[in-house]
Amino acid sequence: MAIQYDAGQRIFAIQTRNSSYIFGVNERDRLQHLYWGAPVSIMDCAPLLRLKSHSSFDAEVEGEAEEYSFWGGVCYTEPSLKVRMQDGVRDLSVSYSHHQIIEQGGKETLIITLKDRVYPLETQLVYQVIPEYDLVERYARIMNTGELDIVLESMQSAAWSLPCLQDYRLTHVTGKWSGEFQLRNTGLTEGKKVLESRRGFTGAHANPWFAIDDGFATESGGGVWFGALAWSGNWKIAAEKTPFNQVRVTGGIHDFDSEWLLGAGEAFETPVFTGGFSSTGFGGMSRRLHQYQYDYVLPRNEPGKVLYNSWEATYFDVNAKDQIALAKRAARLGVERFVVDDGWFGQRHSDHAGLGDWSVNTDKFPQGLDELIGEVRALGMEFGIWVEPESVNPDSDLYRAHPDWVYHFETRERTELRNQLLLNISKPEVKQYILDFMSGLLGRHEIKFIKWDMNRTLTEPGMKDYPLNRQKEVWVRHVQSLYDIWSQLRAEFPDVEFETCAGGGSRIDLGIFRYADQSWPSDNTDAFDRLSIQEGFSYTYAPRMMTCWVTESPTGMNGRHVSLRYRFHSAMMGTLGIGSNLNEWSDAQIEESREYIRQYKDIRHLVQSGSQYRHTALRGKGVTAVQYSDASGSDHVLFAFLHSQKLGEPLPRLCLTALDPGKSYIIEGLEGSFSGRALMNIGVELPLRGDFDSLICRIREQA
Ligand code: GLA
What we know:
The protein is of the alpha+beta class. The protein is about 20% helix and about 30% strand. The chain contains twelve helices and 36 strands. Strands 6, 7, 8, 9, 11, 12, 14, 15, 19 and 20 form a ten-stranded antiparallel beta sheet that branches. The chain is globular, with a radius of gyration of 27 Å.
């Protein structure tokens, strides 16, 4: 049993393979966090369950470690729940009522019910355990059991209390369009560090994920406490340190401009916030999260196909003839899925018009889409297509017919971003419009892949025809409606795979990955820039969920020249795609690429399902090296990239990992065999030379 309860001590413990998460019910009948980290027992924690007062100004210091912080009384730290009652009371006074330990969705689950002492408000704290990956999924269910409405002003998913450490270092990502997933770290001092999105979607500027260590954890060692939130709208993660050295990370739906009206008998469920502990550093953290995503989060656990996408080849200038020519070349390469990007519908000749008019443009496709789809299928590939259902260009038939379908305030300008506005998709008729055209598209054609884009943020968030006292629900309703649409489409078309994209990586989080098979992490396809984007991505998200295209060199982005080989190697670290204009490729380029794709198919099980090890030892020498290993430890592939060589400064050898010291290994391209002991301690020489050099090398146990 992963979940334990000691009735005498009133202490709960969640015991996973390599961690303990422990909290108890204190004398005030409130849930007090006690410990999170390497395994200990309930009895070890019993002495920690006590009230702490410092002065009348800090009367209930133990409340700084409350499991889920109810705003009321003397609570001054970040609240988990803040409400407003009909009589104006905004103070919560909550106590533990009872708990259940059950099995839910195949997971051992603890549900703790807390009740307000006066008002008909109940909160259930739900904990679902993933013992093999040392993870706990947490969410809260807030229930109005009375007759009058209750307004929720902040309803967070979870508060994660850190154990007492010498120092606290927060690792997170930041970014922007075409520069997503850039790693950052900072020491926490007293006060709050807030990571957030207020843009209506997950955002490129931050990602709903955190990791905290004592400042000394490395890629392969040391304790790391982390969490990732499953929400694709406005979110907030606040890491707060108090003067009493208590650090707690509270996260969930952003409380900014947000309210939820909880009617009589209604319940609100927060998104899931998954937290975990790794005693094997940041690498251990990432591997736990990756395998968890494969096993528990993704809608299905299938290999990612090699795809071709026409965007960078043709932009909006798509037509049947050119696309068929591209498809023929893609098939020669060994591509498995051919995707037509933006420009196939309505009067979509640029980003100025057509968005919202989802019927095929018959000037571009005189015989409809099926001519192209037929060719693609005859060439042995699947067909996929791009859509952006939440958006509309004012220059479209849809907008001319329904100008009130977009978010707006009557007295304000409707800000256009990329010449488009955003549809209020929680309006029933808008949601139905999207469901109808998507069902029509998928029902009428042999389409097996959808790239679902969203190219603007949410501004002027007015919901016309919606009650005035519920206007601030807009941020949540957009996401709920989106999830609903995706889940209906997935149920109706179980064979269709989905890619999440929002101008690159602006909608990537554990929430959307319950519906999306993969994601487009960035519009920046420069193979070198991608290495840091991919690394930041890999801290939280699994390689298979990351689509990476090989595009032209120099890229339009930054004019950098890198070889075809380097571009392939960089893109082979996720789900491989090609985005070049193949119609302009020489036969020699096609032949060379065919060979890379063949090689990718050979190692894809390692990249897409194996364990990923980031080798950081040579980072200072400009080397990015990543190893992927199978579960048995007998099959590995190493990727290595050199930025630039300096004369007379040889690269140190690279020590491999995850091998058996007592076994022998064969290294592709090298004579003889090597002991695991030698490869892990003496290492291998990397034959990287010049600028932007790269290699891929397979290491296998000797039979
Ligand atoms: C976004 C996507 C691109 C492409 C274009 C099409 O920018 O990130 O990959 O699909 O839209 O307009």
